[in-house]
């Protein structure tokens, strides 16, 4: 995890945001790889095997760690993340 910072100027804030985005990109890449492995292991992978109950549960767990955003704001973010992973997995299944 990145250590918390309290930047005071716009350039400092933007530099701190860029550091967070770099960490997010690394985590998103790792997440997509793990979610892709799950798609290959599930009896029905990809969009056809979507598990909305699990998606709601992971959003609820994340909301505990991100209380300002809360589940309602995290849900569309994670929906986009999950769908990006499913699109990638389906593409990789078509072109291994
Ligand atoms: C990864 C899975 O497949 C899908 C993708 C998910 C995800 O990216 O977190 C969650 C649930 C499923 O819709 C899974 O079933 O665990």
Automatic annotation (TrEMBL):
It comes from the Bacteria. Residues 4-93 form the Chorismate mutase domain. It holds the Pfam family CM_2. InterPro entries: Chorismate_II_sf, CM_dom_sf, CM_II_prokaryot. This is Chorismate mutase.
């Amino acid at each position: 995890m990145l250590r918390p910072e309290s930047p005071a100027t716009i350039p400092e804030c933007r530099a701190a945001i860029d550091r967070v985005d770099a960490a997010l990109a690394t985590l998103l890449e790792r997440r997509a790889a793990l979610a892709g492995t799950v798609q290959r292991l599930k009896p029905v992978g990809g969009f056809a095997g979507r598990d909305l109950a699990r998606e709601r549960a992971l959003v609820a767990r994340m909301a505990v760690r991100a209380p300002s955003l809360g589940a309602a704001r995290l849900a569309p973010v994670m929906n986009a993340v999950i769908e990006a992973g499913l699109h990638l997995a389906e593409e990789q299944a078509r072109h291994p």
